[in-house]
């Protein structure tokens, strides 16, 4: 039987319903932290007998042995990247300015200022998660005109 799969359970309430109805094994075997059905119930815990029966081939595989396309199931699975379905799993291909965490399932902001301390020369480097635009040129205390420079997708020079 197909029903709603929920991407999260917050304070006992199901949240983030996925757009299409799926079978319980497709929802719960994709991630035991999901919720399923109407009314929504938490998916069985990984160590529960119900989970073992429902997901006998393991996480990422349906009860009948098919790969679950986590990317199609949850369109919000890789913010700041593109989801790539793998057999029994998925990974995130991250956007410019982001990199995969150790799991490969999350894209985290790269702090270019921390990676390269010389990036902003003698200015203040401020990491930002989006494309930045440099402010208009301004004079320094010595009267010299300086123009802030856009460094990359996620860092820019600030003269103080």
TrEMBL record:
Gene Ontology cellular-component annotations: extracellular region
Single GO MF annotation: calcium ion binding
Keyword DNA damage tagged: no
Record's keyword terms, sorted: Disulfide bond, EGF-like domain, Glycoprotein, Repeat, Secreted, Signal
Pfam families (alphabetical): EGF_CA, TB
Coiled coil residues, start to end: none
Cellular compartments annotated: Secreted
Domain TB: 3-55
Protein name, as recorded: TB domain-containing protein
Organism: Pleurodeles waltl (Iberian ribbed newt)
